[in-house]
Amino acid sequence: MDKLLIAGGRPLEGEVRVSGAKNAALPIMCTALLTESPLKLTNVPTLIDVRTMAKLLAQMGVEVGAQSAGENEGGLELRARAITNPEAPYELVKTMRASVLVLGPLLARCGRARVSLPGGCAIGARPVDQHVKGLQAMGATISIEHGFMNARAERLRGAKIAMDMVTVTGTEHLMMAAVLAEGTTVLENAAREPEVVDLANCLRIMGAKIEGAGSDVIRIEGVSSLAGAEYRVMPDRIETGTFLVAAAAAGGRIRLTGAAPGSLAVTLAKLREAGARIQTGDSSIEIEMSGRPAAVSAITAPYPGFATDMQAQFMALATIADGTAQITETIFENRFMHALELQRLGADITIHGNTAVVKGIERLQGAKVMATDLRASASLVIAGLVAQGQTLIDRIYHLDRGYEALEKKLGALGARIQRVN
Ligand code: EPZ
Q1: CB atoms within 10 A of CB 205
Q2: For ligand 1, is residue 31 a contact (CB within 6 Å)?
Q3: Where are the extended beta strands (E) located within 117-274?
Q4: Alpha-carbon gap, residue 315 to 380, rounded angstroms
Q5: What SS3 state is found at 216?
Q6: How far does residue 245's CA lie from ligand 1's centre (Å)?
Q7: Is 110 among the residues known to form the active site?
Q8: pLDDT tens sequence across 52-95
Q9: Beta strands in 52-183, from DSSP E residues, in sequence order
């Protein structure tokens, strides 16, 4: 099993290009099911989760081209001429929850589907009741048998759906189901994340009629069929934020290219509050940091609030900040596992319910730690960059799910980091 070995204490210097957004690429890949024409994507990140989604779609009968790197920069072509097997097996769904997103498109395309329930996840129960409720409102009959959702729908019909809570993939799922439904669907209390907008932009190029993506009310007018599309996936705002927090913690000066500064405004504001100097261009962000960061508190919230996917990274920054920070997690019920590992590096963190109180200290001490989930892994990498001595991070397959060649990119910025097994 691969590990990451980091020798801490060096500032970051240089330039790195951010990859395409995992959480936009995954739902956008599912839109291939909605048309017989080819979907040609670029800027798709090379990640375990993308490979898992490609495998899942391929076994349904979708032709999936090899992911090309280089000048085509993450090119991926998909074509669903026919769906031969509308099923998502437990073996794949349990490794990647976003697999459930195929259910709605399969119902829209061929009127039936058998998709495994995703089961639990390290960061929380993460049920899919809003997905199921929305599809039922659109006329699907869904029975749960032997851990599978067995779904049928002659033809999905438009419905007015009020979501009980803001759900990113729930919004994406129902938007994809609605584009070929009979009539108009209105999603109330919809998620406003940039990845939802990216998906809507791709669907509209395919011929879908969608208004309001990016707001909390999305209207979809069903059409009879969709064409193919060529689409470039948006930059990954969480990878971007992760690099920025790493530079704020380790010090130095880095420049990120291929970024979308507008999609991480709160992260930039928090880093400026911590004392970083930040310049943004159309698709670039430059950050410069010297000295200890000031302690910055945060409360996670749906977009445009402080992203839960940035919470673990900011906690790592807070461990060496000048002062005490309060970090409150409101989206998931168990997303503080990185705190226990940061404590092994000497961090002073006390958990009170869904709030972590982090008293900054001068220096962390390198140690052996274990990654528990995707963003927790990133948090431990940031801590390792600033800890005195060596930090060895185990179970970094969690990291590889969502970060493309992180150690290579950080190494190019001067970090002493290598993959060992
Ligand atoms: C998406 O997960 C992201 N994943 C997550 O990123 C991200 O943390 C999350 O949104 C919040 O921003 C992808 O986009 C693939 P939710 P999702 O549905 O859609 C509850 C990462 O690190 N809920 O917005 O699964 C749920 O339990 C990953 O890249 C229900 O109760 O999250 C949670 O408490 C981690 N019932 C809250 O809503 C439902 O039917 C928000 O979850 C759906 C959700």
Answers
A1: 16
A2: no
A3: 141-145, 148-152, 160-162, 184-188, 209-211, 217-221, 229-232, 252-257
A4: 10
A5: coil
A6: 22
A7: no
A8: 999 999 999 999 998 887 555 789 999 999 999 999 999 999 99
A9: 63-64, 76-79, 87-88, 112-116, 141-145, 148-152, 160-162
Look over the chain and give the mean of its residue pLDDT values, rounded to a whole number.
96
Is residue 23 within 6 Å of ligand 1 at its C-beta? Answer: yes
Nearest atom in ligand 1 to 172's CA: 19
Is 71 buried (19+), middle (13-18) or exposed (0-12) by CB count in 10 A?
exposed
**Per-residue tokens: 357:** 């109180």
Residue with tokens 């190019």: 412
Ligand 1 center–CA 365 separation, angstroms: 33
Strand pairing of 76-79 and 160-162? unpaired
pTM score: 0.98
Q: What is the spatial order of strands in the sheet that 87-88 belongs to?
A: 87-88, 112-116, 148-152, 141-145
Q: Is the CB of 52 under 6 A from ligand 1?
A: no
Between CA 153 and CA 85 the distance in angstroms is 16
Q: Using alpha carbons only, how large is the chain's radius of gyration in Å?
A: 21
Structure tokens at 165: 């809570």
Q: Whose Cα sits closest to atom 20 in ligand 1?
A: 126
